[in-house]
Amino acid sequence: METKRSLAYLRAKKKVETLKGFYSHLAVYVFVNVGIILLSANVFNSQEIDFNDLGIYATAFFWGFGIVAHAIYVFYVMNMENNIFRRWEERKIKEFLDKEEK
Fold first, then answer.
1. Which of 50, 28, 31, 27 is nearest to 40 (CA)?
2. What per-residue string of b and e applies to 76-101 under the rule 16 or more CB within 10 Å gives b?
3. What is the pTM assigned to this prediction?
4. Which residues have C-beta within 8 Å of that of residue 7, sequence separation ≥ 6?
5. How many helical (H) and strand (E) elements, i.e. helices and strands, does the chain have?
C-alpha cells in the first residue's frame, strides 16, 4: 500500500516538474522574443521603427515549433492513462524494488 502511494507521489512530482519546466520555457520564449523583436524593429534607437520586416519574427516563429512540441508532450503525452513510458517506468521500479528485497 505504501509503495503504491509513494509511486503515485513520485509520478505526481514528475508531472509538476514537467509542467514547471514547460512554463519556464514559455516565459523565456516570451521575454527573449519580445526583446529580439523590439531590438530588431529599432524601438530603442533613433532610427525609424519598423515592425513590417518579417525577418524580425523568424526566431519567434521557429522557436515556436519547439514550444508547440513541448506543449504537446506536457499536456498530451504526460496525461495519457496507458502511457507506454509510465508502464515501462513502473516495471523498472518494481524490478529494482524486487532486487533490493532479495
1. 50
2. eebeeeeeeeeeeeeeeeeeeeeeee
3. 0.69
4. 90, 93
5. 3, 0
User: Measured between alpha carbons, how far is 32 from 38 in angstroms, rounded to an integer?
Assistant: 10
Residue type, 1: M
**Domain spans, the chain:** 2-101
**Backbone Cα Rg of the chain:** 22
Query: Collapsing DSSP states into helix, strand and coil, what is residue 43?
Result: coil
Contact assessment for residue 74 and residue 18, using Cβ atoms and an 8 Å cutoff: yes
Counting every residue written for the chain, the total comes to: 102
The three grid cell numbers given for residue 78, joined into one nine-digit string: 504526460
Mean pLDDT, 10 residues at a time, over the chain (102 residues)? 74 87 96 91 81 86 94 81 70 82 74
